[in-house]
Fold this protein.
Amino acid sequence: MILSMTGFGRAENQWKEKKIVVELRSLNSKTMDISVRIAPQLRHKELEIRNIVSQKLERGKVDLSISYQDIKSGVQNRFTPINKEAFQYYYQELQTMQSELGIAPRDLTDTILRLPDVMKATEDDSDVAEEEWQVVKQTLDEAIEAFRQFRIQEGASLEKMFREKLDGIESLLAEVAPYEQSRVEKIKEHLMQNLEKLADEQKRQIDRNRLEQEMIYYLEKLDINEEKVRLTNHLKYFRETLDGDGSGVGKKLGFIAQEMGREINTLGSKSNQSEMQIIVVKMKDILEQIKEQVLNVL
């Protein structure tokens, strides 16, 4: 069983007259990258919240939102209010600087929101009570569990797709066999015709023993049995990895896919027959689909 890197989870609970809502979303990322948007009264708990999420989600670009909603009024308290006076001051100052320095006008909103004192504190910025914090943690845990279940479901879909693609490559590999013997015979025939023609033109005899030695050496260079065996083993290893515990196998599957690509490329370089090259192109196409989806695996 494998887990998807992408996911979504949501949970909500009530504490007194407040509804606490937690939402988690994630996209692909090589590391754990958490973006947190939380209610002002939880700011002092941000580090602890980040630790909880990072310990349970392993990897991904995670977007976490924790908001409060007044049950009676329905008003949400998700973000720290903006200090309009400070915002206006910075806006006028930056506009003046743009004009004086000849800088092309641009939207200053994002820049100003990062400046000191623009986001002002409110009465709700006081520490949360221990009982309230326990409700927040419970809601966070429930959202994380919903998130994990989503990852499991998406992982099952990915696994099904991978197995279908692996079967496709294996089936194409089996199609190579009928062309191998005929390919060798054609190569031999082509070489013999050219050598006999050259010998006739130069009126010389062909050294049959030397010819056999050179022919064997040349045909060994075109032999694809080793590539077929290695590719078959890689397909087997990919399946075995899918059958594992599903924790952190995305990178391993990516490495296996790279090795599969090397063997398929070597098959292509040795396949001097159009029918075999068409099969190799089809295998490459399937492998690219596998590589693309491996990026979604945790």
About this structure: The mean pLDDT is 82. The first strand starts at residue 7 and ends at 15. DSSP finds eight helices and five strands in the chain. The helical segments are 46-57, 84-101, 109-113, 130-202, 208-222, 225-242, 250-270, 274-294.
